[in-house]
Amino acid sequence: MKQHLLLIIAATALATSNAHAAGCLKGAAVGAAVGHVAGHHAVAGAVGGCIVGRQLAKKKKEEEREAAQAKEQAAKQAPQPMTGAKPNPDAKPAPSQWD
After folding, report:
1. Domains in the chain: how many in total?
2. Distant-in-sequence, close-in-space partners of 46: CB < 8 Å, separation ≥ 6
3. What is the pLDDT of residues 57-76, one digit of tens each?
4. Which of 10, 33, 47, 50 sits most deeply, having the most CB atoms within 10 A of its CB?
5. 82 part of a folded domain
6. Do the Cβ atoms of 1 and 42 come closer than 8 Å?
7. How many whole angstroms separate alpha carbon 20 and alpha carbon 60?
8. Is 91 inside a domain boundary?
């Protein structure tokens, strides 16, 4: 049984790209453990965990991409500093009506 699990995890890891491998491997490990505890269905748990792990990794990557785009867009729309007249450090303050 352990050989089957290792074979499935290895095949799944090789079949997926690097972007999805982490999610699949983590999900497969958790799914296998849960499947084993839930009635010796480690292989089915590993496959299900791999699918769920890939989906979660894909969702996280998409959210990170959207956050980066939002940050880039906010940087483009940041208010620009005023480029008008500069204050004269030698100028005297205007007289007050109370002087």
Report:
1. 1
2. 5, 8, 9, 12, 28, 29, 31, 32, 35
3. 889 999 999 999 999 888 88
4. 50
5. no
6. yes
7. 11
8. no
Using an 8 Å Cβ cutoff, are 48 and 17 in contact?
no
Tell me what pLDDT residue 35 has.
Answer: 87
Q: Which of 57, 3, 1, 5 is nearest to 26 (CA)?
A: 57
pLDDT at 65: 95
Q: At what angle do helices 18-37 and 42-76 cross, to 10 degrees?
A: 140
In the chain, what is the straight-line distance between the N-terminal and C-terminal CA atoms, in Å? 95
CB 14 within 8 A of CB 3: no
SS (H, E, C) 7-23: HHHHHHHHHCCHHHHHH
Q: What letter would DSSP give residue 97?
A: T
- Domain membership flag for residue 7: yes
Tell me, yes or no, whether 83 lies in a domain. no
